[in-house]
Amino acid sequence: NQTADRLIAYDADSGERLWVSSNVLGGWQDGVPTATEERVYIGSNNGIIARDAATGEDLWTYRSPHPSRVSSGSTPSAAAVDGDVLYMGFPSGSVAALDSRTGALLWDRLLPGGTYTGGVHSSPVVSGDTVFVGANNGRLYALDRATGQPRWEYEIGTWVAAGPAISGNTLIAGAWDGNLYAFTPGGEAAPRWATVAGTVTDGATGTPISGTRVAATRGTTEYAATTTADDGSYIFALEPGTYAISTTRRGFLTTDNSTRTVEVGSSGEQTVDLELVEVTGPVAGTSSTRPDYG
């Protein structure tokens, strides 16, 4: 619309205006909407919002936890939606995979860069097991679809702000130097990082807990975070090192099995199952768990 902070839907046949959205994220909604039969997604102010396609009702919002590297938080990236997973780039330099139904975080990969030499304006594209996306740091990236691990990158040297396209077995990307770059299979990808996977269950009942946040930290630095699937499962890809794998969720108490320390090598998979206990009655005491407020 005229103030660029709302989305408007029109009937394709008659041109009748159907709904006008809220401006809950603030800032310009300057990207191209991505529409499915049920939802419409659009970026704004270093975040993304999902709306009901029929009514325009706000369904969920997600904002990148990293500060924008571009003034005004301009978020022109258009989300790539594949089934129940949405892939999105942000001006913070982050590329994230979210549950398209709920906005729950599946993985978040922060690409390197500084102010105006970082950020992602490019729209991701998905092919096979890979997410391709350009970045303002002058590189084109291929990320592992399941974990966000960078598999390969190519340095172009100027903003790669346009979304790449795939035709047959060829990946095509445009850059601010005025050139198109084409890539075909045959190069070498980085070895896959080791993975840590497991299930979060209720320690009292053994029931898997979905929608639970799981984080991997080293010292005070959080290196990765994800959300458990419907069956309570999660997976990380991590570089070698020692990590604390922990889980928290509002309405659940932590136990001795809510955090476990693992030594991650250069390859392989480790299973780390975690527990929480649902609060079913009054509880008193002091909590060291940061509230998430939903």
Describe this structure in words.
This protein has 294 residues and is an all-beta fold. The protein is 0% helix and 45% strand. It is built from no helices and 26 strands. The protein has strands at 8-10, 17-20, 34-35, 39-44, 47-52, 58-63, 80-82, 85-89, 94-99, 105-110, 125-127, 130-134, 139-144, 150-155, 165-167, 170-174, 180-183, 194-202, 213-218, 221-227, 233-238, 241-248, 252-254, 259-264, 269-271, 274-278. Strands 18, 21, 23, 25 and 26 form a five-stranded mixed β-sheet that branches. Strand 15 (165-167) and strand 16 form a beta hairpin. The two termini are 30 Å apart. The mean pLDDT is 91.
Determine the oligomeric state from the structure.
Answer: single chain
Largest sheet at a glance?
A: 5 strands, mixed
State the helix count: 0
Ends distance: 30 Å
Q: What share of residues are in beta strands?
A: 35-45%
SSE order: EEEEEEEEEEEEEEEEEEEEEEEEEE
Q: Could you tell me the radius of gyration in angstroms? A: 20 Å
Low-confidence stretches: none
Name the shape in a single word.
globular
* Beta-strand segment tally: 26
| Overall helicity | under 10%
* Integer average pLDDT: 91
User: Class by helix and strand content?
Assistant: mainly beta
